[in-house]
Amino acid sequence: MTQIITTHKNTDFDAFASLVAATLIYPEAIAAVPKTVNPNVRTFISIHKDIFDYVDRWRIETGKVSRLIVVDTAEWARLGPIAKLKQRTDLEVLVWDHHTGGDINAAWKCQEAVGATVTLMVRRLKAMGKLITPIQATLFLAGLYEDTGNLTFSSCTAEDAYAAGWLLDRKADLALVNKFLRPAYGEKQKDVLFEMLQNTKRLKINGYSVSISRIHIHGHVGNLALVVRMYRDIINVDVAFGLFVSDDKNDNRKCMVIGRSDNDGLDVGTLMKSLGGGGHPGAGSAILKGVNPEAAEQMIVDLIEGNQQSSVQISDLMSFPVFSVPSDTIMAEAAKILRQRGCTGLPVVDDEMLIGVISRRDFKKIRKETQLQAPVKAFMSTRVITIEPGKSPIQATRIMVSNDIGRIPVVEDGRIIGIITRSDVMMYFYDLLPG
Ligand SMILES: [Mn+2]
Residue 212 Cα, ligand 1 centroid: separation in angstroms? Predict the structure, then answer.
């Protein structure tokens, strides 16, 4: 019986580490590495060639395979040519993965939403009492750190951190991990970054600051995702896109879109999915063939305009209905209400439209007793800071901090539909929301 361990195309460190870990768990199985391996993993493999036992996947006679162990994915489409084994009814498939979902119908699987697949493998290795070498520990830690952003991604769990601790105990070499995980930023990348900065188009869409930079790429430039990340960091916008246009001689026109988002309201992965690509909320990419770059740019703008919010929005957190007063309420009455309700301000609303806010501060403008009989519209402030329901909790926090206010009316088409307070936002950040 031939047993094969394999993983997804564009193999990253987590995938390769999990593959190597699987060889320890299933010593009879042969590890088969896909043809397309990420550049930094390729470097690692070429340096350690003698240590890790694996074969290039295309050399495997798939007809003899009786058991297939798939790590770091549960999708046939991500396996490349080996996916043709899908047809076999007599094949036993095992899956180890930290992504949920997938169409591989496995006889056995360990599929849990942790930060990295290698964490699941470490759990088993620990249970088996296996000792691993420092080089193996280094590789596993590289996979764990890459997929968890050095244990900082929100997908990272306590078990990932414990696994990292175990690997450090097993003498994982942090200097090596750093060396391999630090992406290459060379002359080519520097040129691209400079050109991107010079070609920046800044837009405001749906309240998001967006930058798009469209440039031509000559020849192959690796690591554009890193360049876009640096680009976003430098121009400091909510979301940044690089549109890289290449005119290959044989291939017509290819346009690669890479996006980075720093705003939980804008999920770049979802946006890129609608362009046929994919990614995470913070980063994503898509390749558009035969599309002219102007059209590609417009597609991105349209997508952000029609951004279907998937994450938590202000409308999920706000309080409603809002206690408000009409504009002809007299000041004396408003003062009474403020006192009774113990709040510092009240929205002034006529026919559902927010027209101002009357606050304790406005009473300082009163000079004569008779003015207490005047309507609030004479004293209210009409420059009201508001927020739209589709904004994210982070954006609400920014508004509160920069304006030194603790409550923001939530307004849609001029109508007040709720109010978001500092404590609503805090509740969200501290995960105290029910359910
Ligand atoms: Mn992974």
Answer: 29
CA 52 – ligand 1 centroid, Å: 19
Last residue of a domain, one of 146, 166, 181: 181
pLDDT at position 434, please?
46
71 CA distance to ligand 1 middle (Å): 9
What are the tens digits of pLDDT across the range 10-23? 899 999 999 999 99
Whether residue 125 sits in one domain with residue 14: yes
Q: Are residues 300 and 321 in the same domain?
A: no
Q: CA–CA separation, 72 vs 26, rounded Å?
A: 16
Spacing, Cα 12 to ligand 1 middle (Å)? 7
Alpha-carbon distance of 315 to 17, in angstroms, equals: 42
Q: CA-CA distance, 421 to 427, in Å (whole number)?
A: 10
pLDDT at 375 over 90: yes
Task: Give the distance (Å) from ligand 1 centre to CA of residue 34.
Answer: 15
339-344 average pLDDT score: 85
CA distance to 170, 280, 284, 393, per residue, from 260 (Å): 35, 9, 7, 19
Separation of CA 84 and ligand 1 centre (Å): 23
User: How far is ligand 1, taken at its centre, from the CA of residue 98, in Å?
Assistant: 7
- 299 within 8 A of 346, measured Cβ to Cβ: no
Pick from 44-53, 239-248, 372-381: least confident: 44-53
Tell me the C-alpha distance between 379 and 364, whole Å: 10
pLDDT in tens, 242-271: 999 987 665 567 889 999 998 878 888 888
pLDDT number for residue 389:
87
d(CA 154, CA 311) in angstroms, rounded, equals: 13
Distance 148 CA to ligand 1 centre (A): 9
* Strand partners of residue 252: none
Q: Are residues 172 and 207 in the same domain?
A: no
Identify whether residues 158 and 9 lie together within a single domain.
yes
Question: Which residues form the domain of 250?
Answer: 187-305
Q: How far does residue 61's CA lie from ligand 1's centre (Å)? A: 27
CATH of the domain at 349: 3.10.580.10
Higher-scoring residue by pLDDT: 99, 310: 99
Looking at the fold, whether 200 and 141 belong to one and the same domain comes out as: no
**Distance in Å, CA 117 to ligand 1 centroid:** 5
Looking at every residue in the chain, the average pLDDT score rounds to: 87
Give 210 Cα–ligand 1 centroid separation in angstroms: 29
